[in-house]
Structures are given as C-alpha cells and as structure tokens.
C-alpha cells in the first residue's frame, strides 16, 4: 500500500479546508472526483480518514496521524526540490571523486584545499580504487567524477587529459646505474608490470635474479629509497621521492600513460560539478605533479 504525492496533497487540502466543496474548488476537481479519491485512500489504509458532518468533514484518529506524517513528508519534499534547484545553480552539495590512492597523494593537494576553502557548502567524498575500477564506477553511475590512468574509450565518458606519466625502472643512486641491486620490486596490480619485465629480461637489460611483487606502490618506493632494489615505478613517484629523485635505468623499456579527468556529460551539469572539474583541470594541467616531456 502506497500513496502518491498527489494523493497526499489531496488529503492535506481536504483536512485543512474541512469541507469537500471548498477543497474541490482549491484543487480544481469536481466534488465527486475528490470524494472518490478520499475513499480510495481510506480503502488503502482500511481506515476512515474523515467523519462527514453537516458542516463538512472532521479528521478521525487515523486521519490525524496521517496528517502529521503527510505534513512532514510535504516539507521534506519541498526542501528536497529546493535543494535540487539551488544545487544546479550554486556551488554546494556532495560529490564523489574516484581516484587511485597513490594518484590521490600527488594530485588532491594541488586543488582540493583551495576548492573546499572557496566553497564551504561543497563536500567531496573520495573513493579509492584501481583506475579501471574507478572508470567502471563512473560509467555505472556509482561515482560522479574520476581521476584515472588511461581511461577507456566509452560513449558515455567525457575525458580531459591532465598530465603525462611513464612507468619505468628506477634506482636510488646514479652510481647504481652501472651496478644496480640484484632485486627488482614491482607492483602486481599494474597491468604494465608483466610486459615491461618480460621486455627487459628478453632484451637482456635486467640481470637481476630476484623479483618481488607487492600491491603497494609506496613500498616499491621505499625499497628503492633504501638502495636495496630496482623499482618499477611511475615517474610521478620516482621523481618526487622524499629524499631526492631516483635515477632511471637507461635503455630499459617504459610505458607512457595519460592521467585524465572523466565524468558522464549527461549527468554532471550542475554549477558545483563544473567548479570541481575546472579546479582539477586548471591545477593539474598548469602544475602537474611530474613533467615527462
């Protein structure tokens, strides 16, 4: 048993007017049609809502309970529609942003603090997943916006390139280029890991006898920073290492990437969404976390 908003509006109008004739006039319907609507609501509830008197109608106990809830629902609905209308024209509201946690480390600080400080009514909910999962979330309407690596071509996606990155082999010290450590550490989640390792080994460019896999890029960075390993890393991490930029092993294969902002153009039309996109694009195109050109 459910009531439509129109039915609740009809009920509230009759309850306020206390007279079927006046309520019918206010609603722009005939009195027989209004009486039929009220009877249908009473049948749905299996309770009388009004007692008919010579002067009009009076609420029953069930009618009083329904009126209290109906008034609250009406106010909530009005507030919701107001929020939706204002949300289209004001920079406020809650939006979800999907981004790989490591990508987030190097991108969010470049735009997020200023964006949120400028718009106190704006809220960003972060969703940290692999880039391919974030892209799927945006396509399937689970996430509003995404900052992803090499987003797929999809008819529902709008893609704006932000900056370029590249994955390759790195060592901590320049001297280690001639005699690199015997251990290679790689991230098993990266789709580039297996082909780059295979290419380097087939070409005889890597003489390391041991390979260690992890799902944490920051652990790969830490192992390289210790001087104990060669690491397969994005340049964003390698060139922004805490204790100084790493050195790329020359002649080893690399994979170039494009980090892009993605969204569904058919949905992200509000002023707030446009402000978020503008802040991200301006910050990361003008001052990218890495330059590989």
From TrEMBL:
Domain HTH lysR-type: 1-60
Record's keyword terms, sorted: DNA-binding, Transcription, Transcription regulation
InterPro entries associated with the record: HTH-type_LysR_regulators, LysR_HTH_N, LysR_subst-bd, WH-like_DNA-bd_sf, WH_DNA-bd_sf
GO molecular function terms noted in the UniProt entry: DNA binding; DNA-binding transcription factor activity
SUPFAM superfamilies: Periplasmic binding protein-like II, Winged helix' DNA-binding domain
Assigned GO CC terms: cytosol
Pfam families: HTH_1, LysR_substrate
Family designation: Belongs to the LysR transcriptional regulatory family.
Protein name (database record): LysR family transcriptional regulator
Source species of the chain: Sulfidibacter corallicola
């Amino acid at each position: 048993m459910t009531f439509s908003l129109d039915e609740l509006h009809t009920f509230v109008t009759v309850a306020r007017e206390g007279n079927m004739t006046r309520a019918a006039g206010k609603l722009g319907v005939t009195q027989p049609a209004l009486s039929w609507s009220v009877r249908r609501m009473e049948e749905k509830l299996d309770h009388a809502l009004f007692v008919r008197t010579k002067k009009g109608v009076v609420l029953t106990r069930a009618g009083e309970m329904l009126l209290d809830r109906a008034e609250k629902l009406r106010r909530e609905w009005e507030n919701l529609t107001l929020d939706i209308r204002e949300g289209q024209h004001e920079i406020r509201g809650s939006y979800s942003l999907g981004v790989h946690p490591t990508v987030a480390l190097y991108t969010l600080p470049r735009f997020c603090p200023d964006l949120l400080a400028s718009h106190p009514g704006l809220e960003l909910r972060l969703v940290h997943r692999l880039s391919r999962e974030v892209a799927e979330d945006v396509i399937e309407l689970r996430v509003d916006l995404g900052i992803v690596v090499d987003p797929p071509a999809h008819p529902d996606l709008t893609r704006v390139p932000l900056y370029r990155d590249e994955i390759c082999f790195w060592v901590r010290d320049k001297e280690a280029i001639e005699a690199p450590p015997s251990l290679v550490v790689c991230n098993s989640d990266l789709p580039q890991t297996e082909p780059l390792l295979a290419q380097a080994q087939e070409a005889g460019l890597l003489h390391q006898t041991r390979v260690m896999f992890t799902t944490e890029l920051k652990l790969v960075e830490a192992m390289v920073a210790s001087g104990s390993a060669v690491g397969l890393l994005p340049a964003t991490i390698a060139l922004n290492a805490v204790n100084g930029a790493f050195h790329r092993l020359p002649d080893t294969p690399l994979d170039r990437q494009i980090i892009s902002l993605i969204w569904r153009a058919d949905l992200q039309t509000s002023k707030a969404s446009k402000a978020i996109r503008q802040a991200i694009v301006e910050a990361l195109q003008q001052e990218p976390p890495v330059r590989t050109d």
